[in-house]
């Protein structure tokens, strides 16, 4: 393989458009115990164990990224809680100098059993994906059962001291309209921060089309009519892609992540590391930067730093959804890490 340049890698990850990258999403597996229609095929096949980065390899990548200014790590998948002993990785990552927050995005099915260990390991924040509070509609979307276990997981997470838990719900026209109001009421009651995410062209079955995108604006209107008036509020975390609103009556916050109708590429500060060790500069990038090959071929931290810098330097200004030049990536969401 070719080794990148000589000299020193840059100390910050700034791309050609001046965006500094401080957030790294790390996928730890492509396996999952659900089969959400918008993410995974029913007959998914998975990466071999050998291809997955070990925890030590992930930690090495994070150490290098941290030296280049990365401050937050978000663990994802696939379903990250299916990776055995995930808490050991969390312990390692929280000890990396410069890393300020290690967060986890999970479907919550295994949370009740694992959340105490995650808290002990130093996990800073939890995002739980939940699209419906009705078991039969949950199963229609996730193509597996498990709603009750997710609710138990949320309860246990609160008991273990997690606060400001975010609930992520994907918005798909013709599929999720009925879920909006019950989810909003539930999250207001429990103090969860609900965020609606527009459906992106990353489903494995290639069913996405623009007409299936239920926009954040439409969801906002439904909430104002059926739940309560909203007013714009400052996001508690400026790095988040969501535009946040609070209910005028003071009970709760709701966020809208609108990558299709209102792309936020101009303030993107995110990079990704796939479970099989590829750096990516965008969910929609069709190019990978192969960290695993470097790690397993005797590459130095400096080589890894150059690889990361090259990945950032090649980042396009925008994902380009809806433009003629847009090309769907060959990997679906579960294979990249959302
Ligand atoms: N399994 C975990 C979970 O569901 O939270 C982590 C991985 S999942 C790929 C991360 C997030 O991506 C979830 O909130 C999920 O709803 C979202 N997601 C998956 N496919 C999507 C799509 N096509 N469009 C928008 N969001 C999607
Ligand atoms: Fe699994 Fe999460 Fe994808 Fe659903 S969204 S299939 S839970 S990885």
What does this 3D model show about the protein?
The chain has one domain (23-336): Aldolase class I (TIM Barrel, Alpha-Beta Barrel), CATH 3.20.20.70. Helices cover 29% and strands 16% of the residues. The chain has helices spanning 55-67, 86-94, 111-121, 135-142, 147-159, 180-190, 216-226, 291-296, 301-313, 333-336; strands at 23-27, 72-76, 101-106, 125-129, 166-171, 193-198, 230-232, 243-247, 253-257, 270-273, 278-280, 289-290. The protein has a twelve-stranded mixed beta sheet. Helix 1 (55-67) links the parallel strand 1 (23-27) and strand 2. The radius of gyration is 19 Å and the shape is globular. The chain starts with 22 loop residues before the first strand and ends with a helix. The protein binds S-adenosylmethionine and iron/sulfur cluster. Iron/sulfur cluster (SF4) binds at residues 32, 34-36, 39-40, 77-79, 107, 129, 333-334.
Question: Which helices and strands, and how do they pair?
Answer:
Elements: E1 23-27, H1 55-67, E2 72-76, H2 86-94, E3 101-106, H3 111-121, E4 125-129, H4 135-142, H5 147-159, E5 166-171, H6 180-190, E6 193-198, H7 216-226, E7 230-232, E8 243-247, E9 253-257, E10 270-273, E11 278-280, E12 289-290, H8 291-296, H9 301-313, H10 333-336
Summary, kept brief:
This protein has helices spanning 55-67, 86-94, 111-121, 135-142, 147-159, 180-190, 216-226, 291-296, 301-313, 333-336, and strands spanning 23-27, 72-76, 101-106, 125-129, 166-171, 193-198, 230-232, 243-247, 253-257, 270-273, 278-280, 289-290.
């Amino acid at each position: 393989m070719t080794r990148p340049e000589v000299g020193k890698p840059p100390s910050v990850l700034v791309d050609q458009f001046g965006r500094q990258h401080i957030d790294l999403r790390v996928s730890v597996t492509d396996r999952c115990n659900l089969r959400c229609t918008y993410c995974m095929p029913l007959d998914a096949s998975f990466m071999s164990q050998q291809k997955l980065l070990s925890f030590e390899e992930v930690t090495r990548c994070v150490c290098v990224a941290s030296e280049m200014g990365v401050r937050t790590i978000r663990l994802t998948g696939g379903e990250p809680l299916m990776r055995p002993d995930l808490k050991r990785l969390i312990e390692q990552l929280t000890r990396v100098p410069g890393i300020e927050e290690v967060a986890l995005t999970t479907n919550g099915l295994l949370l009740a059993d694992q959340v105490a260990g995650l808290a002990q390991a130093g996990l800073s924040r939890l995002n739980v994906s939940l699209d419906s509070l009705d078991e039969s509609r949950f199963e229609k979307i996730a193509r597996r059962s498990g709603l009750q276990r997710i609710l138990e997981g949320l309860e246990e997470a609160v008991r273990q001291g997690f606060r400001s838990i975010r609930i992520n719900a994907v918005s798909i026209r013709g599929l999720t309209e009925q879920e909006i109001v019950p989810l909003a009421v539930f999250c207001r009651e429990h103090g969860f921060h609900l965020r609606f995410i527009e459906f992106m062209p990353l489903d494995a079955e290639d069913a996405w089309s623009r007409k299936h995108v239920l926009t954040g604006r439409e969801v906002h209107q439904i909430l104002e009519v059926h739940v309560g008036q909203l007013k714009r509020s400052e996001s508690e975390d400026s790095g988040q892609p969501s535009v946040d609103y609070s209910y005028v009556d003071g009970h709760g916050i709701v966020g809208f992540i609108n990558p299709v109708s209102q792309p936020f590429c101009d303030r993107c500060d995110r990079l990704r590391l796939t479970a099989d060790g590829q750096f990516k500069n965008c969910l929609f990038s069709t190019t990978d930067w192969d960290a695993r090959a470097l790690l397993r071929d005797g590459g130095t931290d400096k080589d890894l730093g150059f690889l990361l810098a090259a990945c950032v330097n090649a980042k396009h200004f925008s994902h380009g959804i809806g433009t003629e030049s847009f090309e769907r990536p060959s990997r679906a969401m579960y294979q990249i890490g959302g």
